[in-house]
Specification:
CATH architecture of the largest domain: Alpha-Beta Barrel
Radius of gyration: 26 Å
Largest sheet: 7 strands, parallel
Strand order of the largest sheet: 1-5-7-8-9-10-11
Helix content: 40-55%
Structural class: alpha/beta
Number of strands: 22
Low-confidence stretches: none
CATH class of the largest domain: Alpha Beta
Number of domains: 2
Number of helices: 27
Distance between the termini: 70 Å
Shape: globular
Oligomer: single chain
Length: 746
């Protein structure tokens, strides 16, 4: 018996992305959007037909946490005048003058969820129509569905609770609505199965709610449907101990990223509950070592009877690409080492047969192929690079030559930027014409000279526009880059790229993570040509734009045969070489984006120090090459900074820009409270929404910032890069930003 925690929903060829963007642009209607969604669900269930259940309600138009907020009626007051898809997408993307709900990282992954907003004055009205409709679809196709539902504790813990609201009052209100939703669902099938996803338990004890777990899940179990509680991304020993004392039917545990879960086996055995053993990796793309996994399962079976063990993925397959079927250009040897969502289901089925049955001739052949593939990967000459390994043995610099207080004075003298300097985070809109240009060059339909003329033309337009509106520090717009990580990975040795390895980041936003299969090095400069060309067009300061080593690591599928810290150190040396080339070419400000620095944090507090030590070290290996007068910027996305503010300061970047537009100046208060000394660029313009902020709106944002930090310390910029926006949104927004700053300065 086997299940998966969830399946990717964007589609094999990003069909959902295209349908969503067609709907948002008015090119298609709601019926067409739903038709595409229905076709995708049917297709995705067909791949799960040999499993015990197909997953229902793991599909979403935008995000599963948003789906639950919508189903519960947890609607922020500013959106209550709307309904249907207008309301749903309004909460995610903003609507008219209503600012979208915040987004932040889903635990330590690259997926973003929409943050629910809860208050003790909310009145909830449930709506289970989406879940019921999808359940009926699955049943009509002859499948046995299980409903995937974000658990109550995870939902509340990940929500933003209004400042004057009492946690207990909010919890009770949400619990009542959640129970009402379950009561509505249990009517749809006498053999209902619900999988409650509680990854929040993997973070350890939360005193606000740990005392409630037993009672809540006993109440849920008493409702009469089959109840499975799953945790993932780490071990959850504390919660598992409590869940073993409840009347739920099964417990799902991650035995790959939470090895300590093996310590819970005796308790689970005594409780006579079914164990859903997360044994196939839902987060990385390497082919499973089935012999090794079978060994783990046999160890589990020493404590728990095999008939009480159901094999599972470690977490949802949302975090891996769809299928290897479209990968026809990748090196065949490297491709053999990979396993995407569809292949992982096949691995799960084969492993289950080996564990609980006997392999037939065909299965034995597959098993031997798996053994051969893993053996080949360990010995392949493609993995090891002697020059990289030798360089790592040499002394490596990890500190700037001059302390911040002294070098910032030198930078002000050299750069001479005004109070509240304005800039952008780096990228400008990736237009259809620009994408078509890059694609034509990639396919060989145009020559290099034609391609470069097109890129130069775009850069000229970007620089001219920035000069026209009066930005202080310019960027080249990144027209040559498809993705902030992929672009660098394509030029670093040790990386390989998929053709169709798309993974959902949020909504319709998809990324194609690089695959780090071997030792990393930088054969030649990666950004020098285009950035120096852009600088030649203007007398204003132009920023060099790089992606940091920790973000490249965290946004890639990383080899699992050496420590992640060792891979990151290799990347950091390549970035250091690039910074040196840029500063030697006259680039005075260089931004090293670490958008995913926080994303890599371990979920358990006891593991944080080790991560911080090597992540900090790698960033500083990259930037310590910078001269005192070279100003180093960095950028971070969607992060809660309260718990890592000292670590951010230890990065020793001269300027940090951060996403704050959706949260006002709340994130900045921690900078003021700790006495943060470096310069800060809080986002005043939410680029994840199509809304055009007015000049007055931006002025209000800036005034809020000035209540928290002194003007001498502040930069003014958008939240993030502008590549996903349209020029007709970007131009007026940036003009309003510059005009707002001018008026504030006056």
């Amino acid at each position: 018996m086997s299940i998966i925690i969830g399946f990717p929903r964007i589609g094999e060829h990003r069909e959902l992305k295209k349908a969503l963007e067609g709907f948002w642009s008015g090119k298609s209607n709601a019926e067409e959007l739903e038709r595409t969604a229905k076709e995708l669900r049917a297709k995705h269930w067909s791949y799960q037909k040999n499993l015990d259940y197909v997953s229902v309600n793991d599909f979403s138009f935008y995000d599963n946490v948003l789906d639950l907020a919508y189903a519960l009626g947890a609607i922020p007051e500013r959106f209550r005048q709307y309904n249907g898809l207008e309301l749903y997408f309004g909460m995610a993307r903003g609507l008219n003058d209503s600012v979208a709900c915040e987004m932040t990282k889903w635990f330590n992954t690259n997926y973003h969820y929409v943050v629910p907003e809860l208050s003790q004055t909310d009145n909830y009205k449930i709506n289970t129509s989406k879940i019921e409709r999808e359940y009926a679809e699955a049943k009509s196709l002859g499948y046995r569905p299980k409903i995937n539902l974000i658990g109550l504790f995870t939902f509340i813990s990940l929500s933003k609770i209004a400042e004057k609201s009492n946690f207990e009052n909010v919890f009770e209100r949400v619990k009542s609505a959640y129970f009402e939703l379950l009561d509505s669902l249990k009517k749809i099938d006498s053999n209902l199965v619900i999988q409650f996803d509680e990854p929040i338990f993997s973070k350890g004890k939360d005193e606000r709610f740990y005392g409630k777990i037993k009672d809540i899940y006993n109440q849920i179990a008493s409702k009469g449907f089959k109840t499975i509680v799953t945790t993932y991304f780490e071990h959850s020993l504390e919660a598992t101990e409590i869940l073993c004392q409840t009347n739920i039917d099964g417990i799902g545990l991650d035995f790959l990223y939470g090895e300590k879960n093996l310590s819970s086996l005796n308790q689970i055995a005594k409780s006579d509950k079914t164990l859903y053993a997360g044994i196939i990796d839902g987060r990385n793309i390497w082919v499973a070592d089935l012999e090794k996994k079978l060994s783990i399962l046999e160890k589990i079976a020493q404590e728990i009877p095999k008939e009480k063990i159901i094999l599972s993925t470690s977490c949802s397959l949302l975090h891996v690409p769809f299928s290897k079927n479209s990968e026809i250009k990748m090196d065949k040897e490297i491709l053999s080492w990979l396993s995407y969502a569809r292949e992982k289901i096949g691995e799960l089925e084969l492993l289950e047969t080996a564990f609980k049955g006997s392999l037939n001739a065909e299965d034995k052949q597959k098993w031997q192929e798996n053994i051969s593939i893993n053996a080949n990967r360990k010995t392949s000459t493609k993995i090891n690079d002697k020059s990289t390994q030798e360089r790592l043995k040499q002394p490596i610099k990890t500190q700037r030559d001059v302390a911040f207080k002294e070098r910032i004075k030198l930078q002000h003298q050299s750069l001479n930027y005004p109070i509240l300097p304005t800039t952008t985070i780096g990228s400008f809109p990736q237009t259809p014409e620009l994408r078509a240009l890059r694609l034509s060059f990639k396919k060989g339909e145009i020559d290099e000279k034609t391609y470069e003329k097109g890129i130069e033309s775009y850069i000229k337009d970007c620089v001219a526009f920035q000069e026209e509106i009066g930005l202080d520090v310019l960027v080249h717009g990144e027209p040559e880059r498809n993705d902030m990580v992929e672009y660098f990975g394509e030029q670093l040795k040790g990386f390989v790229f998929s053709q169709n390895g798309w993974v959902q980041s949020y909504g319709s936003r998809c990324v194609k993570p690089p695959i780090i299969f071997g030792d990393v090095s930088r054969p030649k400069p990666m950004t020098l040509k285009w950035i120096t060309y852009a600088q030649s067009l203007t007398s204003k300061i132009l920023k060099g734009m790089l992606t940091g080593p920790v973000t490249i690591l965290n946004w890639s599928f990383v080899r699992d045969d050496i420590p992640r810290s060792a891979v990151c150190k290799q990347i950091s040396l390549g970035i250091s070489d690039e910074i040196n080339d840029l500063q030697n070419a006259g680039i005075k400000i260089i931004q090293v984006d670490e958008a995913a620095f926080k994303e890599g944090y371990p979920l358990r507090k006891e593991n944080i120090k080790t991560y911080e030590e090597w992540a900090l070290d790698c960033f500083k290996v990259s930037t310590s090459i910078a001269n005192p007068t070279t100003q180093i910027h960095t950028h971070m996305c969607y992060s809660e900074f309260n718990d890592i503010i000292k670590t951010i300061e230890d990065l020793d970047a001269d300027v940090i820009s951060i996403e704050t537009a959706r949260s006002g100046n709340e994130l900045l208060k921690v900078f003021a409270n700790v006495g943060y000394s470096h310069e800060v660029g809080p986002g005043v313009y939410d680029i994840h929404s199509p809304r055009i902020p007015s000049k007055e709106e931006i002025k209000k944002q800036i005034k809020l910032l000035l209540e928290v930090l002194p003007k001498e310390q502040l930069w003014i910029n958008p939240d993030c890069g502008l590549k996903t926006r349209k020029w007709e949104e970007v131009k007026p927004s940036l003009k309003n930003l510059v005009e707002a700053v001018k008026e504030i300065r006056e």
